[in-house]
Amino acid sequence: MASLKFRLRQRYWRWTAPRKIGHYLAAASAAKLQIGSGHNLLPGWLNTTLYPFEPGSVYLDASHPFPIPAESLDYIFSEHVIEHLEFDQAALMLGECFRTLSAGGRIRLATPDLQQIIALYTQPEADAQQAYIRWVMDRFRPQIGEYNPAHVINHSFHGWRHKFIYDQATLSAAMERAGFCDIERLEPGVSADEQLRGIEQHGDYVGSDAAMRYETMVFEATKP
């Protein structure tokens, strides 16, 4: 019964989403889409998520075409979402981001950095890696009883249900294939655009700003 109730709720979310999106776009002076908002509802943004339990959030499945008109958005932000999609699904998401942004629109993506995850195994004695290994093991796998990078790396994929973790070159290439230009890597919270500055909240979600900063890479790009 619970499964049936959830499916009915999801059908309702999907049915009402285009109307809610239309209302937002009609009222917004600067149309800003957040993909995968979770609990991080940004004021003035169209906060979308696969499970819109939070009041004010709207249903959106990033692995499918967006119910959003072409060239209707000024900004898109997505934090720790793209790694939950298969590589081909993520390519569709980036293509939809490109389609729905207006010329000159900006996208900002935050996602785990594969290089940092691999460094947990290749450089496990470094201070930053040690701190991250201890944090993951203490918080998520205390029953193991040891600080083992193999467990942390496996948790990075299976524990958080990640499908594909990018390195800098792979994500940059995917964004370029989608049509974006002026692709640049930035630190979390840092942006020359005030609309995109300081909007990452994944550190609050996982309970550690230091851990978020260790694992996260951030990219911005423009639709020409």
List key phrases describing it:
single chain, 224 residues, alpha/beta, Rossmann fold, 2 domains, 7-stranded mixed beta sheet, 8 helices, 7 strands
Q: Would you mind describing this structure in some detail?
A:
This protein is an alpha/beta fold. The chain folds into two domains: 2-113 and 166-222, Rossmann fold (3-Layer(aba) Sandwich); 114-163, no CATH class. The chain is built from eight helices and seven strands, in the order αββββαβααααβααβ. The chain has helices at residues 2-27, 87-100, 114-122, 127-140, 149-159, 168-178, 202-206, 209-215; strands spanning 32-35, 46-49, 58-59, 73-79, 101-112, 181-186, 216-222. The protein has a seven-stranded mixed sheet with strand order 3-2-1-4-5-7-6. It is globular.
CATH superfamily of the largest domain: Vaccinia Virus protein VP39
What is the CATH class designation of the largest domain? Alpha Beta
Largest sheet composition: 7 strands, mixed
Q: Total domains, how many?
A: 2
The neighbouring-strand order within the major sheet is: 3-2-1-4-5-7-6
CATH topology of the largest domain: Rossmann fold
Number of helices: 8
Low confidence ranges: none
* Global shape: globular
| Helix-strand topology string | HEEEEHEHHHHEHHE
CATH architectural grouping of the largest domain: 3-Layer(aba) Sandwich
